[in-house]
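README: folding subset

This subset contains proteins for which both the sequence and a predicted structure token string are available. Records are stored as plain text. Below is the entry for tRNA-uridine aminocarboxypropyltransferase (198 residues), shown exactly as it appears on disk.
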Amino acid sequence: MARTLCNNCNFSLSTCICSAVKDVNNHVNVIILQHPSEEKIAKNTAKLLNLSLSGCQIIKGENNNDFDILKSLPLETTVLLYPNEQAINLDDKAQSAELSKITHLIVIDGTWKKAYKILQLTTLLNQFKTISFKQLPKSRYAIRKAPRADSLSTLEAVAHSLFLIEQLNPAPLYNLLDELIQKQTQHMPEHVKARYLA
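--- output ---
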């Protein structure tokens, strides 16, 4: 039997997180390129960003044909969040002049493997500068296991980026993530919950 979903947040009624949603007015537009397999994952955090941020859109796909929007973004002021060797570190104070010009932030939503696949198939992304961080904030997102120590959820990566680019207060976004974790773990047996939240 299909579970009844909340009309607003699209989570099941028992895990609805609407009470924790706060409107966040961001100046840098966030464009999330989402691997199709992420959409059905209950613990996916991209949709939390879409619920809160005033400037955010999620586009599902895997390649240039799916992400036609990339052709219309301003080249000089759009950046891709991806930790490659050319990436400008947002937390490097010497780059502050560069940060003030950013108008659009592209983020790939998927596992590392799927994100890399999107990067390979979407050559339109090659035209944008990449950004990353020297120091990662500690991930709060314990309910989805990641194979790499430098893994952040999509919400955490975007919240930290907007904090560094436009000094946006990340607390409402982190509170929403905490609510998701609380709701997703509320029915777990204690020994299972302890394994996740240790």
